[in-house]
């Protein structure tokens, strides 16, 4: 990732952006092109391959402050790592506000996005609702993220999303 990536306690946290995971390069290409059609500035969309994301995440893990484990930033990058290991590609898109973030997520979801998270100063909001009626459980540094799967594991969310698309 570029050197201008925002961080919190040594971990990637692009405040004001939507971070989108897509299952492959073709999906990322289509989503990026569609996002260009909704009037975003050309420099509003940054693309990352699975390998670029893995390099960034590994650097974040190596350089993270112990304070990063207090919030959900570390759990989120670990969940992103699982997806990147599975070949997911990424778009990091600047959003002018909540409404535009939702519009970005809907466009990306229409092109196969698995996840779209809007990064705020104090909260990271999941914008793509997972299929099924699994109730969300409390997240914590010890419990990790609630991936909205019966097991609570991000890898199962990735597998389920891939199975639905196939």
List the helices and strands and how they pair.
Elements: E1 7-8, E2 11-12, E3 17-22, H1 25-36, E4 45-48, H2 50-63, H3 73-85, E5 89-94, H4 98-109, E6 115-119, E7 124-126, H5 154-165
Antiparallel strand pairs: 1-2, 3-5, 3-6, 4-5, 6-7
Helix pairs in contact: 1-4, 2-3
Write a structural description.
It is built from five helices and seven strands; from the N terminus they run βββαβααβαββα. A hairpin with a 2-residue loop joins β1 (7-8) and β2 (11-12). It is of the alpha+beta class and 166 residues long. The chain has one domain. Helix content is 38%, strand content 17%. It has a five-stranded antiparallel beta sheet, with helices on both faces. Strands 1-2 form a two-stranded antiparallel ribbon. It is globular, with a radius of gyration of 15 Å. The model is unreliable at 7-11, 138-146, 148-152 and 160-166 (pLDDT under 50).
Helix content: 25-40%
The number of E-state strands comes to: 7
Structural class: alpha+beta
Give unreliable regions as ranges: 7-11, 138-146, 148-152, 160-166
The succession of helices and strands, N to C, reads EEEHEHHEHEEH
The helix count comes to: 5
Major sheet size, sense and barrel closure: 5 strands, antiparallel
Q: Give the count of structural domains.
A: 1
Distance between the termini: 30 Å
Short overview:
The chain is 38% helix and 17% strand. It has helices spanning 25-36, 50-63, 73-85, 98-109, 154-165, and strands spanning 7-8, 11-12, 17-22, 45-48, 89-94, 115-119, 124-126.
What structural keywords apply?
166 residues; globular; 7 strands; two-stranded antiparallel ribbon; alpha+beta; 5 helices; disordered C terminus
């Amino acid at each position: 990732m570029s050197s201008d990536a925002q961080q919190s306690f040594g971990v990637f946290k692009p405040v004001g952006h939507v971070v989108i995971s897509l299952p492959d390069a073709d999906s990322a290409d289509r989503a990026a092109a569609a996002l260009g059609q909704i009037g975003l500035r050309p420099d509003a969309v940054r693309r990352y391959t699975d390998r670029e994301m893995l390099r960034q995440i590994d650097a974040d893990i190596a350089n993270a402050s112990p304070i990063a484990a207090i919030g959900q930033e570390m759990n989120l990058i670990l969940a992103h790592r699982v997806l990147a290991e599975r070949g997911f590609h990424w778009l990091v898109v600047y959003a002018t506000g909540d409404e535009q973030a939702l519009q970005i997520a809907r466009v990306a979801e229409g092109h196969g996005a698995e996840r779209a998270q809007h990064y705020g100063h104090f909260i990271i909001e999941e914008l793509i609702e997972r299929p099924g009626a699994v109730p969300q459980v409390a997240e914590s540094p010890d419990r990790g993220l609630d991936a909205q799967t019966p097991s609570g594991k991000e890898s199962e969310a990735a597998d389920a999303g891939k199975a639905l698309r196939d």
